[in-house]
Design goal:
Strand order of the largest sheet: 1-4
Number of helices: 20
Distance between the termini: 84 Å
Shape: elongated
Structural class: mainly alpha
Order of helices and strands: EEEHEHHHHHHHHHHHHHHHHHHH
Number of strands: 4
Radius of gyration: 27 Å
Oligomer: single chain
Largest sheet: 2 strands, antiparallel
């Protein structure tokens, strides 16, 4: 067999025997046949012989390499060619050249690589359970290819390429299999005992016992190649972005936020969050309904809010004010959805409101950190917004809807915010109404009777 440094899954038989040959993992149930499609029978080709290099003048796309890696990655016994000079590196360098000359968006094969093969390749080498079985050489080659990838991502931050943005969330995820396995690797950009000022770098290890040095280096490479500046420029240029696009842009940095320097967060990410909150708060009812029309989009709103909070928890200035403003914004958006949405939209918004309320019910004020809103803040918001007047208007004939109101009412009771006037409002909602509404309201009040304060105001 030729020497071949490729990442591939480990295969095991009933006795879990696995053997390693030339840094490639094979298993007894995987037939090693050099004639099979996707099995690399050639020796490594140096980058200089491929006609493509990062600094070269060639803008030819290696179509044959794309066809080869596509077969290799998508075969049952997949293999990702990560060795220097192999297909993945050559394709990444070709894409970098095309991106520099702004020709990659016009190249159909390059776009196919972005949308499919590139994401598939890195998803396998960064998240597959076989990561733990690969040799140090293979781990290093994966990191080297990742450096090329973040260089490409930094360049493409203004292209709104969803496939690359989603892939970036995998590359920058500290809990991925690859970064978890290599967490003890030291950083080259921020060596141990170095005294590099935070303003000169974008990320640094937070614990030199587990430095996550390779991830730190990838983030610093991304920043050095202009990635963070391009991110901020893109947010400043946004006209009418979807919530999904904004959330996908910010998610990678929420995941790795603990490694980012305060200077990086304050200079690049806090301005992005302020742009987002200003945009989201100005959404009309119709725009918000459109953005959250299906359940997955409603999850996008929740995910975006969580990412904003993760980033702002690291804000060096005005942290508490910024975090609480995002949490109140979230509540205001949910109220808009409850008021204006269809049944499914209301149910999704009530589910999200209940998710916010639940920690307070079971642990009350102790569950929140000092930067978040308190249960008192939440109780006051519910009363100020007259939430009961909003939710006790329609769909009361549906038991699944009325059941969603139980948690809000119990929270108001726990916070001593429920009054006799509120009980009258609930009771009036069933007077002279259909028997289904009468039954649902009676059942709700019967459950509340066990926790009602006998001295309601």
């Amino acid at each position: 067999f030729p020497e071949n440094y490729s990442a591939r899954p480990s295969r095991r038989n009933a006795t879990h025997d696995v053997f390693q040959l030339n840094n490639v993992m094979y298993g007894p149930d995987l037939e090693v046949d050099e004639t099979q499609p996707g099995f690399d029978t050639t020796s490594s080709v140096p980058a200089t012989d491929s006609g493509i290099s990062v600094s070269g003048a060639s803008d030819e796309f290696p179509y044959a390499d794309l066809a080869t890696i596509d077969r290799m990655v998508n075969s049952p016994g997949w293999k990702v060619p990560v060795e220097p000079g192999q297909e993945l590196e050559r394709l990444l360098k070709a894409c970098l050249e095309l991106a520099r000359s702004e020709q990659d968006d016009e190249n159909e094969a390059c776009q196919k690589f972005y949308q499919d093969t590139l994401s598939n390749s890195f998803h396998k080498v960064l998240t597959d359970s076989a990561v733990n079985s690969w040799t140090p050489e293979i781990q290093g080659y994966i990191f080297d290819n990742s450096v090329l990838l973040v260089k490409l991502m930094a360049m493409k931050m203004r292209s709104e390429n969803m496939a690359l943005l989603r892939l970036m969330a995998i590359v920058f995820n500290p809990t991925s299999k690859f970064h978890h396995y290599n967490a003890s690797q030291p950083s080259k950009t921020v060596p141990p005992s170095s005294q590099i000022p935070g303003a000169d770098i974008f990320a640094r290890p937070t614990d030199f016992r587990v430095p996550k040095g390779w991830l730190v280096d990838l983030i610093n490479n991304f920043g050095s190649d202009g990635g963070f500046q391009n991110l901020l420029d893109q947010f400043k240029a946004f006209a009418d972005p979807s919530l999904e696009l904004v959330s996908t842009y910010l998610k990678p940095f929420g995941l790795c936020i603990d490694l980012l320097t305060s200077s990086c967060v304050q200079t690049y990410l806090v301005p992005c969050t302020l742009i987002v909150t200003s945009y989201v708060s100005a959404l009309t009812n119709e725009q918000l309904k459109k953005e959250t029309k299906v359940e997955t989009r409603n999850d996008t709103l929740s995910g975006l809010i969580q990412t904003l909070k993760m980033i702002l928890h690291r804000a060096p200035q005005d942290k508490k004010q910024l975090v609480q403003s995002v949490e109140i914004l979230h509540l205001d958006l949910l109220l808009k959805l409850i008021k204006t949405s269809s049944f499914n939209g209301k149910m999704n918004a009530l589910n999200e409101l209940n998710r916010i309320i639940t920690p307070f019910l079971f642990n009350r004020r102790q569950n929140q950190d000092s930067d978040s809103i308190t249960s008192e803040d939440l109780g006051c918001w519910l009363k100020d917004q007259k939430i009961l007047n909003v939710v006790f208007t329609d769909y009361l004939h549906l038991p699944q809807y009325v059941e969603k109101l139980d948690k809000t009412l119990k929270f108001l009771i726990h916070e001593d915010k429920l009054t006799t006037a509120d009980i009258d409002l609930i009771w009036d909602a069933q007077i002279d109404k259909h028997e289904a509404i009468v039954k649902n309201i009676h059942d709700l009040l019967a459950k509340l009777a066990w926790v009602l304060n006998p001295t309601l105001r």
